[in-house]
Design a protein that fits this description.
By secondary structure, the chain is an alpha/beta fold. The chain has a domain of about 200 residues: 2-Layer Sandwich (Dihydrodipicolinate Reductase, domain 2), CATH 3.30.360.10. Helix content is about 30%, strand content about 20%. The chain contains 13 helices and 15 strands. It has a nine-stranded mixed sheet, with helices on one face. Helix 1 crosses helix 11, helix 4 packs parallel to helix 5 and helix 10 packs across helix 12. The protein is globular. InterPro entries: Gfo/Idh/MocA-like_OxRdtase_N (IPR000683), Gfo/Idh/MocA_oxidoreduct (IPR051317), GFO_IDH_MocA-like_dom (IPR055170), NAD(P)-bd_dom_sf (IPR036291).
Length: about 400
């Protein structure tokens, strides 16, 4: 099997995906990386054997020796870069979120249909073992028909990952309820079997906004911008982004198109870092305790009772295929993308679902900034949705 020739736009925080995709002799190899930062280009050369680097994305998109493009750049660039690559006939992998506006997402989807070029969105949590186990139990009917979903996201390292660079600015993200929340909103939709139609939210910048320790404009992040066990408590953070205008805590209520009611909470100054999903059906409920190997999904569905810690069934979170990020999901999503580039067809990720996650996060952000008013989430053009549901064939 001839290796697919992959190019990468952006070699920053998600550069691990490029390294996972580089499999010379096994179906794919990264041939060129484009990044405006010389340090990122040097790192790419050090980490990917035989790769070529350029400073202009157009040199990649217009390259006839490229089969597919991985877009790993900051969120606000996704729509322009994805549409340019699709028009050039390159299969496209867009890291989540698909874009930072609903209009940008719809522009990408329309361009993919108009050009007939394959589009894939990197919602890798659909390949995380804990998510797949919950999805399996729901589909099997272990808790009956899903009626409500509650999600709590404890972002223990939020001060490091989201308040020291472009993530902290609305102009680049819309807000963290979209940028970070797109993962969980997509999973929530997947578990519930529907998409958000109405959304209402409250949120605030409660901790990092008052921290005066900011970098000067144009000053790069410090070498110790992230530590596993340091930078605690949150007010001890230093060298934050010069501009911080996104919320660090938010809570959202949702009504889905199938009647399911859902809630999502996100906090960037908790001491722990994990996600908790509670899915309640008309015949039981399930909940995850931990979201990596060592955690478990527990089900209560045999009888009524008072409080009891012991569930009626418990399923351990399986070991990943390797120790890469997101519980081993990254290699699996790259596997699916490469298969999709070669063969097309349906995938566990979905451009439609990616758009609807952005639409829910965008509407929720608008709601919280308007004092909690209910926002209607715009539906996607049914003909456009049908195109992608058929597998882009």
């Amino acid at each position: 099997m001839t290796d697919l020739r992959l190019s990468v736009l952006g070699y920053g925080l998600r550069s691990s995906l490029a390294r996972v995709a580089h499999r010379p002799g096994e179906g794919a190899r990264v041939t060129v990386v484009a990044d405006h930062d010389p340090a990122c280009r040097r790192q790419a050369v050090e980490q990917i054997d035989g790769v070529r680097t350029v400073d202009d994305h157009r040199k990649v998109i217009e390259d006839q020796d490229v089969d597919a493009v991985l877009i790993l750049t900051p969120d606000h660039t996704h729509a322009d870069l994805a549409c340019a690559a699709l028009r050039a006939g390159k299969a496209v992998f867009v890291e989540k979120p698909l874009d930072i506006t609903v209009e940008g997402c719809d522009r990408i989807l329309r361009t993919a249909r108009e050009t007939g070029t394959r589009l894939y969105v990197g919602h890798n949590m659909r390949h995380m073992p804990v998510i797949r186990k919950m999805r399996e139990l729901v589909a099997r009917g272990d808790i009956g028909t899903v009626k409500t979903v509650w999600v709590r996201h404890f972002v223990g390292h939020g001060g490091d990952f989201y308040f020291k660079d472009w993530h902290a600015e609305r102009r680049y993200t819309t807000g963290l309820l979209l940028q970070k929340g797109a993962h969980d909103l997509d999973v929530l939709h997947w578990l519930a079997g529907g998409y958000t139609r109405q959304v209402q939210a409250f949120g605030d910048l409660m901790v990092y906004g008052d921290n005066p320790h900011r970098r000067a404009p144009g000053e790069p992040k410090t070498a110790d911008w992230y530590t596993e066990d340091g930078h605690w408590p949150p007010h001890t953070q230093r060298a934050l982004n010069p501009v911080i205008d996104v919320e660090d805590v938010s809570m959202v209520n949702m009504r889905l198109d199938n009647g399911v009611l859902a809630a999502y909470q996100q906090c960037h100054f908790t001491p722990d870092y994990w996600r908790n999903y509670t899915v309640i059906g008309d015949a039981g409920r399930l909940e995850n305790f931990g979201d990596i190997p060592g955690g478990a999904v527990r089900v209560w569905n045999a009888r009524r009772s008072g409080y009891r810690a012991e569930p009626d069934a418990e399923y351990q979170v399986s070991e990943p295929v390797d120790d890469t990020e997101h519980g081993g999901a990254d290699p699996l999503i790259i596997d699916e993308f490469l298969r999709f580039v070669r063969e097309g067809g349906r995938t566990d990720t979905s451009p439609v679902a990616a758009r609807m996650a952005v639409a829910a996060g965008y509407g929720a952000t608008a709601s919280l900034r308007a004092g909690g008013v209910v926002e209607e989430v715009p539906a996607l053009d049914p003909d456009l949705a049908a195109y992608f549901e058929r597998g882009q064939v």
